[in-house]
Amino acid sequence: MxxxxxxxxxxxxxxxxxxxxxxxxxxxxxxxxxxxxGILELVDEKGRRVIVPVAKLAYVEIAETxxxxxxxxxx
Length: 75
What we know:
Structural class: alpha+beta
Number of strands: 5
Strand content: 35-45%
CATH class: Mainly Beta
Oligomer: single chain
Number of helices: 1
């Protein structure tokens, strides 16, 4: 699953490929936003941790990756 994180005053967004479910990521975002001094911590597919202070979050986009078709199809 792909998670895009917008950070204030950053030119580019963070893109994390996570093995967590969309519900788990949404729960982690909600939990981090509930605390004023909270941090959002996600783990990517390779086990790396991404930590962003909630005060710097601009947005979080949660999107399930779709499997790309391989080969040609006849219509």
